[in-house]
């Protein structure tokens, strides 16, 4: 999906050589996370001998169920082990309550802050030979700020006597420069691969002239001040509402998309509909010291425990994590096996119109490895 040279450069990871021995944290979380994260582990175990790799695994905990048991959605022990022992991790899904619960906040949002996972990279690509529309885009989402800083308050309006809720939206120059840089580096690698590349900066600066205006201004500055490096990349801007419309009408027009946190979250989940299901779309949370692979689906409590969740998003996220860690050959083996499974169209879970179980799909992909 992406080449490791692009990802390593974009994440500014300065490995003299990619590590052969790695410790991977496994955080199933809630719901179907407990069913799909084992698939990622099985795939890593399958590829390690062929490429001379060695993986050690540590089981870790986070999520709503963990909160109910311990009073903490993200235990400090999980954070410290990830910081001190792990080069990579796989994060499943969390089931968050829709109403406020005192003391609870999203563990994945907190984990991104704790580990400095500043970029969420989500490739959305159709498989040649399937009935899906031709789609090949990468959505690069700023991962640390925007409305997700969770500065909210509710108060009584003295004029009306009714409740008002306020939320702070934060866009900083530092975070925007960082996310623009990784997006341009990914676009540059795609330029080398395909001979052409575009970067589309998504914003709503026509309404949010200061916050989104700053995002737009800084992205443009990063591009303009490095024209000697990025000048062959076509630079575009798109207001987020028209971006949604065009993404579904003309997905072939988009290549690399960079967006603030909230817009990136919405766009990347919506884009999954172009390639069949959230169950097939991967992501990687990238920081300077660790990479966390994370499937894009939620905890899906309606099917949890039935053994029919789609493991492909997790398996592709595992490959994406390996790419950021510098192991492109292993990642490409995994991608090819997954693509072959989708192209064959025989062993598939119900979200893709099939009747196979989670393990049936895992076994089919393992057999192709």
Tell me what you see in this structure.
- The protein is α/β, with parallel strands linked by helices and 369 residues long.
- The chain is 41% helix and 18% strand.
- It has 13 helices and 12 strands.
- It has helices at residues 4-11, 33-48, 64-70, 76-85, 107-114, 173-194, 211-224, 227-230, 240-249, 261-271, 312-324, 328-344, 358-368; strands at 21-29, 54-59, 88-93, 119-125, 136-142, 152-156, 163-167, 198-203, 234-239, 256-259, 284-286, 291-293.
- The protein has a 10-stranded mixed sheet, with helices on both faces. The protein has a two-stranded antiparallel sheet with strand order 6-7.
- One of its GO terms (cellular component) is mitochondrion.
- It comes from Zygotorulaspora mrakii.
List keywords for this structure.
alpha/beta; globular; Isopropylmalate Dehydrogenase; lysine biosynthesis; 13 helices; two-stranded antiparallel ribbon; oxidoreductase; 2 domains; 369 residues; 10-stranded mixed sheet; single chain; EC 1.1.1.87; disordered N terminus
DSSP strand (E) fraction?
Answer: 15-25%
The CATH topology assignment of the largest domain is Isopropylmalate Dehydrogenase
**Net shape:** globular
Total number of strands: 12
Overall mean pLDDT: 92
The name of the CATH architecture of the largest domain is 3-Layer(aba) Sandwich
Instruction: State the fourth-level CATH superfamily of the largest domain.
Output: Isopropylmalate Dehydrogenase
Report the CATH C-level class of the largest domain.
Alpha Beta
Provide the succession of SSEs.
HEHEHHEHEEEEHEHHEHEHEEHHH
* Contiguous runs where pLDDT drops below 50 for at least 5 residues: 3-16
Structural class: alpha/beta
Major sheet details: 10 strands, mixed
How far apart are the first and last residues' alpha carbons, in Å?
Answer: 17 Å
CA radius of gyration: 20 Å
Number of domains: 2
Catalytic activity: (2R,3S)-homoisocitrate + NAD(+) = 2-oxoadipate + CO2 + NADH
Keywords: Amino-acid biosynthesis, Lysine biosynthesis, Magnesium, Metal-binding, NAD, Oxidoreductase, Phosphoprotein
Protein name: homoisocitrate dehydrogenase
Domain Isopropylmalate dehydrogenase-like: 23-365
């Amino acid at each position: 999906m992406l080449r490791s040279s692009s990802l390593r450069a974009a994440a500014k990871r300065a490995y003299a050589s990619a590590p052969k021995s790695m410790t991977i944290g496994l955080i199933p979380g809630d719901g179907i996370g407990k069913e799909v994260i084992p698939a990622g582990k099985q795939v890593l175990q399958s590829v390690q001998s062929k490429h001379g790799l060695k993986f050690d695994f540590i089981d870790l905990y986070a999520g709503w169920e963990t909160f109910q048991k311990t009073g903490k959605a993200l235990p400090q022990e999980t954070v410290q082990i990830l910081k001190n022992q792990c080069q990579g991790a796989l994060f499943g899904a969390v089931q968050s309550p829709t109403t406020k619960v005192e003391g609870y906040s999203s563990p994945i949002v907190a984990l991104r802050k704790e580990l400095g996972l500043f970029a969420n990279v989500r490739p959305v690509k159709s498989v040649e030979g399937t009935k899906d529309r031709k789609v090949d885009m990468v959505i690069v989402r700023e991962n640390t700020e925007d409305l997700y800083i969770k500065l909210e308050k509710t108060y009584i309006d003295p004029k009306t006597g009714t409740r008002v809720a306020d939320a702070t939206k934060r866009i900083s120059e530092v975070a925007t420069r960082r996310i623009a840089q990784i997006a341009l580096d990914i676009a540059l690698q795609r330029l080398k691969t395909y001979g052409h590349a575009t970067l589309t900066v998504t914003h709503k600066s026509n309404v949010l002239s200061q916050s989104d205006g700053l995002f737009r201004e800084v992205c443009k500055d990063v591009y303009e001040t490095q024209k000697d490096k990025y000048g062959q990349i076509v630079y575009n801007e798109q207001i987020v509402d028209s971006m949604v419309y065009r993404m579904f009408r003309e997905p072939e027009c988009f290549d690399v998309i960079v967006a603030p946190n909230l817009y990136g979250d919405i766009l990347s989940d919506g884009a999954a509909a172009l390639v069949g299901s959230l169950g097939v779309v991967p992501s990687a949370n990238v920081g300077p010291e660790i990479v966390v692979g994370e499937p894009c689906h939620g905890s899906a409590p309606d099917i949890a425990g039935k053994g029919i969740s789609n493991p492909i998003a997790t398996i592709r996220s595992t490959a994406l994590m390996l790419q950021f860690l510098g192991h492109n050959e292993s990642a490409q083996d995994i991608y090819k096996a997954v693509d072959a499974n989708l192209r064959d169209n025989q062993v598939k879970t119900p979200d893709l119109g099939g009747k196979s179980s989670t393990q049936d799909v895992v076994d089919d992909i393992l057999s192709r490895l």
